[in-house]
Amino acid sequence: MSTTIGKVTESLKNLLVGEMVPATNVSLISPGDTSGQNKRINLFLYRVIENPHLNNRDWQPKRGTTNQLVAPPLALNLFYLMTPFSPLDPQTGLADAHGLLGEAMRVLYENAIIPQTYLETGLQEGEVKVTLLPLDLEQLSKIWTALNKDFRLSVAYEVSYVEVPAEQERPLPKRVTQVELDVRAPFKQPVLQGMSPLSGPVGTTLQFTGTFLRGWKATVRVGGRIAVEDQMLFEDQLFVAPVPAGLTPGVYEVEVNVANLSRLREVFEVVP
């Protein structure tokens, strides 16, 4: 049984508990449950969808084997409703709840990529990105209507992307290794190793390092936009691609694919 979604939820809780000032209780129950009226922030997972950009990935070689392929992990986007709770004060009303919400939003804004310190075991830094959703009053009201509860001040966040490991496997198709008079086809699988720099303005030249890259074709996407597509590689250990135009300042996922044999995912921050 996969526990990935639960680990992401716990990681969000860890972040809020560890960074909010003053320290605040964080609950993970339905926002319609008001049994606990103490001051707290509540996180509620209300929607899960498949990531639309990562739903057609190829099968990958299984680690530690030479003849097995594994299905790509299921990539999901998670949607959370964050709601502050505080007893009604006869003098200030719900001002305490408003303060809690503002502090929680500050923490998520300053930690849009959850630091490794707060991630549950099995998650890696850079995998969990938190984004505030600009839902209007009507959209928020629909969520509360579905819960059959009166509307409360709340905000929504999207967490992307979350990978649920797949367990399906299949044998690697046999390759032709001998032609007629024992003529063998040389084959060294390309291996991607890293990317630099990790931040810069639009147009920055990204450098990708690896081994056995020469002779293969590479495709690079930044934030879903193509930087290079099917570019022939002429060096064994290095190739470059520009950060495409049109990206506004922010953090974007970089996807690199060399001949469907080696892939790399990194995070790049576009700065003004």
UniProtKB/TrEMBL annotation:
InterPro entries: Ig-like_fold, Ig_E-set, Pvc16_N. Gene3D superfamilies: Immunoglobulins (2.60.40.10). Residues 8-177 form the Pvc16 N-terminal domain. It holds the Pfam family Pvc16_N. This is DUF4255 domain-containing protein. The lineage of its organism: Bacteria, Pseudomonadati, Nitrospirota, Nitrospiria, Candidatus Troglogloeales.
